[in-house]
Amino acid sequence: MTDFSSRQTRFDWSSRAYQDLIRRRRRSETYLRGAGLASIILAVSFLGLMLAALFSTGYKAFTQTHVTIDVPISAEHVDSADIFGSNWRRVMQDAVAGHFPDLEGRALRAAGEILSNGAQFMVRDRVVEAPEMIGSTLSITVPVSDPFDQLSKGLVDRQTEEANRRVTDAQIAAFDKLAQEGRISAPFNWGMFANVDSRFPELAGLKGAFIGTGYLLLVCFAIALPVGIGAAIYLEEFAPRNRFSDFIEVNINNLAAVPSVVFGLLALSVFLNWFGLPRGAPFVGGLTIALMSLPTIIIATRASLKAVPPSIREAALGVGASRQQVVFHHVLPLAMPGIMTGTILAMANAIGETAPLLLIGMNAFITAAPATPFDSATTLPTQIFIWADSPERGFVSRTSAAILVLLAILVVMNALAIYLRRRFERKW
Amino acid sequence: MPDDQRLMERAVNAERTKIAARGVQVHYGQTHALKDVDVDILDHAVTAFIGPSGCGKSTFLRCLNRMNDTISTCRVTGDIRLDGDDIYDRGIDPVQLRAKVGMVFQKPNPFPKSIYDNVAYGPRIHGLARTKADLDGIVESSLRRAALWNEVKDRLASPGTGLSGGQQQRLCIARAVATSPEVLLMDEPCSALDPIATAQVEELIDELRANFSVVIVTHSMQQAARVSQRTAFFHLGHLVEYGDTTQIFTKPKDPRTESYITGRIG
Q1: Structural domain for A320, as ranges
Q2: Whole-prediction pTM value?
Q3: In sequence order, which residues have a C-beta less than 8 Å from that of residue B263 and are 6 or more positions away?
Q4: Angle of CA points B198, B216, A311, to nearest 5°
Q5: Is the ipTM of this complex over 0.95?
Q6: What confidence tens digit (pLDDT) does each residue in A316-362 have?
Q7: Which residues in chain B (83-142) have CB-CB distances under 8 A to chain A?
Q8: Which of A32, A233, B172, B204 has the fewest CB atoms lying closer than 10 Å?
């Protein structure tokens, strides 16, 4: 006893060796902190780089160049009995001719290319709505076609040799004339959200993809959430611990790591070929993504069920609650914020999923928004895939813009998950 | 003399055996946690289980309302009878048993719900109240029995987890008595409480004796001496000695009991 205490007092805290030890310890701590900081800076700068690249190409797609033209709705071309089927091409030709009185023939037609192909249908729809317009002149703002949108945004180099650019000198002159007259404007590109897909970039929008994604998420949520929570409750609260439940647990974890394209192949062979479900439908996409989300939801739900303190279970059992009552009255409500967080994150993953949807044909060119989950549709990521594959220059910036829209949705969903967690999480 | 005999009978009635355990063995997997325990727990009395940590006293307590069923590796053999009925019989529903044998835990564990809902939960799931007024009555009388009514009557809707530790434990006692159990099991109910709250709970235990048979596990020998009429001393899974509290603390028969209460083992 005395020996021990005397040895304690003899330890020299100011010794050289001890000072060295302290210094080494501090140094390694500084290194660790520096390394952590460096990796965070690296990660953030990569993220910044990606966003910068997307913004720099994408921001231009958020405006669309428009031109305001006067369209004479002459009774000669527009048949008041069949307004819809009238010769709208001729009406537009007249309108262009009215703006360029000194052009003729081929040159006039070239100038007409400034207008989007959709312009005639916009004029048609306006007149169908208000037939009394026939005989008067309609002043309407329509999108310009993609090459002139590029020109207006400065993406076409005017110094390039004429043969090497998509707009001729004469067309540029015609466009500049309209610009001088103050007819060219570049308002916010609402069409990108309100229009469905189109071959013409200036008309293409994400409406179909939004609705397709919405249906897909709805189906996915409706299937994956109850099945996932049910499976997790059974595994966590009721299943006996034996080899069989271990086997299931390992496989659920494995399933979470299966590449998504495999799920696409599965959906193709089972849902489409065997069950005969419609190709490219959000319903099938939702089923597929639900299969993929299940492991994530099960794992998240089990984790939040586990996090409910055993004292709550004991308290409920102690007053004579059955196991089912313990789960549904006490454990599940307490685990719900965690389950919702996990589910939202799984849904956020599901939104960005592309590969399995390509395999079930959700990358088709579809120019109508789906009316039901059983109609063919695209989703945001497959729409991005389609646009990224399109040759028109206008789709380059639109692809980036669509990616930005997708990212914005993901940010909102993740923020919602964080909010739910903060709002409802309990401290024990 | 018939009169005298009747008096005798009444005295026996008051000290009637509530729970009779015979040859109880508990295994946790390979571990033999409780060896051959015989105990008669009396009605309207406080029975204290004392002993060093890991001696099996909590394990035995949890056999009495079959809480050990929730541990998959736990195996209980032997015979435990509540009012003569084998509680490990196939026909006995452990859920019903736990309504009759209430339990208060070591750490106060109110549900993260309102004070009212904490107390009303048991009566609700067992259908003890027909109307809202009935339920209000049960909640009030339970809180009164737990000596908590005056402190919380104006904030029954506020969360039970917002109370102080001692209040939380009394809330748990109110929750346990709300289902009108016949036996109240308490697993170290004061170990997480400060001395003042402990004194309140001890006083409460003494009052509860009027209506229930109370079994309390405690680490504090002073507490056992203060609140109990009967004391059982457990050591290494054996029930070493069981008898009147005064006898155990003044004239222990077993040398191990004497060592423990004088502080030489434990």
Answers
A1: 207-424
A2: 0.80
A3: none
A4: 80
A5: no
A6: 998 888 889 999 999 999 998 889 888 988 988 888 889 999 998 88
A7: 95-100, 102-105, 107, 109-112, 121-122, 125-126
A8: A32
